[in-house]
Amino acid sequence: MNEEGLQPGGDRFPPTHRSVIEAARSIDAGEREQALEALCAAYWKPIYKYVRWRWKRPAEEAQDLTQEFFAELLERELLDRFDARKSRLRTYLRVCVDSLVMNEDKAGRRQKRGGSIPHVALDFAAAEDELGATAIDPAKIASPESLEEFFEKEWVRSLFSLAVEDLRRVCEQRERARTFHLFESYDLEGDEKSS
Known about the structure:
The chain has helices at residues 18-24, 29-54, 59-75, 78-81, 89-107, 124-133, 144-173, 177-188. The chain is an all-alpha fold. The protein has a domain at 3-137. Helix 2 packs across helix 5 (89-107). The chain is globular and about 55 Å long. It starts with 17 loop residues before the first helix and ends in a 7-residue tail after the last helix.
């Protein structure tokens, strides 16, 4: 893909490929499903953590809202309304999440988990563990700018975790598990004594 196929997104992290957005809007069901899975994989954890921190929701409610957000993303075809000339995808999705939470608060209703909404398998326990291990003072992320930075850092962390998991799978498929183990020990854990 050439440079023109990328959304403008700043210098600190890789931008979202326009081709993913276009594929998510595709009439081809397989292409659309694959693109939506990629978007969900990249954004579910930052959205979940954002709802927990920004909206101060307990874990179960944040899980419900995250699931509901992705259901609405599909049902209301929110990606069709996204305009790359007006904002970055991350910002657009964050605003959509804010809108969802405010609407839920306004209506005073809560969707029961596993109800009539489509279920996406998300590992909330791992996200809670990561959130518990994060030493963040809530007072330091109270401003919209710091919340945006928090969301973006979580998005980058999520993408990196997906890439490492993909590398692990490829190494196992090619019978190079030892190579991955060395990479993990030296580069991810910083263990210089591994052999």
